[in-house]
Amino acid sequence: MTADEFSDLLERHGSNIAEWPSPLQNEARSYAHASDQGRRLLAESRAFDALLSDSADVPTPLRLRAHILERVATKESPVWWTWITDAVWRPALLAILPLVLGFVLGDMASQFDGDSTEATMFLAFADLENLAEVNESTAADD
Q: Which end of the chain is more exposed for a tag (fewer CB within 10 A), N or C?
């Protein structure tokens, strides 16, 4: 085993050689005992692991755990979700709201451009073979 291989295995599996895959444990132990560089790499890895384990102890805010568990136990929902789901008519109202909004906006847009809308509607229901007659009658009305 080389120093690069040992270093790579330390990065992959950590500094506790007993937790490594079985085929690698004996070879890694013998390299760490026989080589000065192996001992140095193992010591650095153990120091780094100790540093990481010390930094994992972060204090939690007061009563955070109790508050979370209490909320889960009571299945408390937000106020807006309760308002939507309490009554049967509310989901129906919320489903119809975009439809009504679309009709209102469409009606407002048609009021701004009344002439072209009427012509478009007339063409939509007109017979295309008689399009020339439609154009003549519209020109005569103007």
A: C
Give the DSSP letter string of 54-119.
HHT--PPPTTHHHHHHHHHHHTPPPHHHHHHHHSSHHHHHHHHHHHHHHHHHHHHHHHHTHHHHHH
Say yes or no to pLDDT of 123 above 80: no
Q: Where are the domains of the chain?
A: 3-55, 78-141
**Six token digits for residue 1:** 């085993």
Q: How many residues does the chain have?
A: 142
Do residues 34 and 2 make contact, with C-beta atoms less than 8 angstroms apart?
no
- Residue 34, exposed/middle/buried by CB under 10 A (0-12, 13-18, 19+)? exposed
